[in-house]
Design goal:
Layout lengths: L2 E7 L2 E8 L1 E6 L2 E6 L5 E14 L2 E14 L4 E5 L2 E3 L5 H16 L7 H18 L3
Parallel strand pairs: 1-7
Antiparallel strand pairs: 1-2, 3-4, 3-5, 5-6, 6-7, 6-8
Helix pairs in contact: 1-2
């Protein structure tokens, strides 16, 4: 059985289709959503996510947002999302290094929350890219 999944990013509708399952990390832990899942509202973590459609898994780097599971559909409103194929691994590794340098710096002008978010995004991209 399938269900309707809509993913909305700041750029607009990223995905709008029927899927068989959705596995992602909420701030409270991992969840797999299947057809008929109980209603759910939650916050999304920075982590890899995958969708199964037509018995094929597609992987994405998900970088925060919210999920709403209802009887009619599942809606993700995301801060950013990239498919595994869209990830520039060299850029992600460089971003991780920069964020780690900022976080280890003693500079009082460093925006710690912004540097942590950059680090989490980079790690999510790297983990997603390395999935076989």
């Amino acid at each position: 059985m399938s269900f309707h999944l809509v993913i909305i990013s700041p750029r607009g509708i990223y995905f709008d289709n029927e899927v068989e399952s959705l596995t992602l990390k909420l701030t409270s832990g991992y969840r797999t959503i299947l057809s008929g899942h109980a209603p759910l509202i939650g916050s999304l973590a920075y982590a890899p996510m995958h969708i199964i459609k037509d018995n094929k898994a597609t992987y994405y780097s998900l970088n925060g947002g919210a999920i709403n599971v209802s009887k009619e559909k599942v809606t993700l409103i995301v801060n950013s999302i990239e498919s595994k194929d869209e990830i520039d691994i060299k850029r992600a590794k460089e971003a991780k290094e920069r964020a780690e340098e900022r976080l280890s710096s003693k500079d009082p002008n460093i925006d710690i929350k912004r540097a942590q978010a950059a680090l989490y995004r980079a790690i999510s991209r790297i983990k997603t890219y390395e999935i076989d």
